[in-house]
Amino acid sequence: MRLPPEKKSKIDALWDRFWSGGLSNPLQSIEQMSYLIFMKRLEDMDVLEQRRANATGKAYISIFEGHEECRWSEWKHKSAEEMLKHVRDVVFPFIKNIHDGEKTLFSQHMKDAVFIIPKPSLVQEAVGIIDELDISGQTSDVQGDIYEYLLSQLATAGKNGQFRTPRHIIRMIVELVDPDVNDRICDPACGTAGFLFTAYRYILKKYTSPDMVTEDEEGDWHGLIGDHITEQNAWDKLHQDTFYGFDFDSTMVRIALMNMVLHGIKAPHIESTDTLSNQYSGEEAFTVILANPPFKGSIDKNDINDRLTLGTTKTELLFVEKMYRMLEIGGKCGVIVPDGVLFGSSNAHRDLRKLLLEKCQLEGIVSMPSGVFKPYAGVSTAVLIFTNGGNTEKVWFYDMEADGYSLDDKRTPLDRKGDIPDIIERFRNRREENPTDRKGKCFYVPAEEIKANNYDLSISRYKEIEYEEIRYEKPEIIIEKIEELEGKILGNIAELKRMLNQDL
């Protein structure tokens, strides 16, 4: 992300203040930071809408009408004690009930939210830093980067198989699936909504004049204005009926909403629900699903959604089946799964793979190295790309060896891209290339061969390893060389002893 060093240092300072102020849980901290940022952005957005109304001659009723004391500019200069009391007792209840409880970007998920910053000095310092960040004065790109940099600290809070997906891996999957402006895009385990806002940025990139788009050293895109989207109804759909996310953690939902808003999506549909359980009753037919669902989780057998038929409680299997059932015919999915999904021997594992081959077009599998999710998880993973409907004739495999970062716990940037550009290019050209050399990085495997191998989808089952023959010298020659070397060593030792005796 292209974030100036001075802004990174301010965000680092914000984290330090929260840590020293007693809020050491990253998830808890980012939630409280989000509330303060939202308070700032609410006034910014109100001012912008007022200017637009003035320019067009339309009437506009301020969101702060009757509540002028809730404007950021009205209370940001208060003393520490006054500020804490005002934010806790006046401003926070206001944003929880904004528009009298109407469904808005944030308020519908704020019912159970609690403002828990305990120290007046911490509130005052946090408000000062957020004000210095000048979020309203930044482009939507920078606003999004600011929040993404804040979220980068959430990786330390991973639990129960939940951890943030590296941003470059998200971009790779989005490019492989290739969402478009008319799609309805869903992440059924959305976390902080990384896949959703990246899909939004990818669509904008597709519809922005090429000379306007730049790419930073991390591969992220900038200058995305979508100038080729010329119809207002297309923009309305993009902002109001394109992005859907679900997560069982209400805190994550609130964070995801904030993330989407700061990336320019005005009305995302983010709901607090467990899509694997009976509490999810949605019948939406999505055209694109992008996800990295929790690994190694389980769900109560009695709570499993009635539409799921695999006969297992393992979430990594149930989520893939759920994505298949949430897709309309012709809809495409890109999902990260642990390697065990590809070769597990249980009936549920086999049935899922059979479903992917016989009820879907399993288009590609990218096998990723185990270090991709370090230092928070060392599990080997793969990306599945499949389309709902039809059946699979052959599966394209790619053996990713490098993602542009070291595969140890430090994850040091190398070239920041690794095999990813090659993966995207070769996946797009796979039909023309029709690769069959199983000694190469990518190749096709016929579906019939996979079925004959108990539906095993692990790349190691099909990849051919080319061993280079090494010729060694005969043993007697090696012995002669060792004896010769030993003689030289003994000669050198004797010479050293002689020199030492001379000195004495």
From TrEMBL:
Keyword list, A-Z: Methyltransferase, Restriction system, S-adenosyl-L-methionine, Transferase
One GO BP annotation of this record: methylation
Domain DNA methylase adenine-specific: 140-467
InterPro entries, alphabetized: D12N6_MeTrfase_N, DNA_Adenine_Mtase, DNA_methylase_A-5, DNA_methylase_N6_adenine_CS, SAM-dependent_MTases_sf, T1MK-like_N_sf
PROSITE patterns linked to this entry: N6_MTASE
Start and end residues of each N6 adenine-specific DNA methyltransferase N-terminal domain: 8-123
Protein EC: 2.1.1.72
Enzyme superclass (EC): transferase
Protein name in the entry: site-specific DNA-methyltransferase (adenine-specific)
Source taxonomy: Archaea, Methanobacteriati, Methanobacteriota, Stenosarchaea group, Methanomicrobia
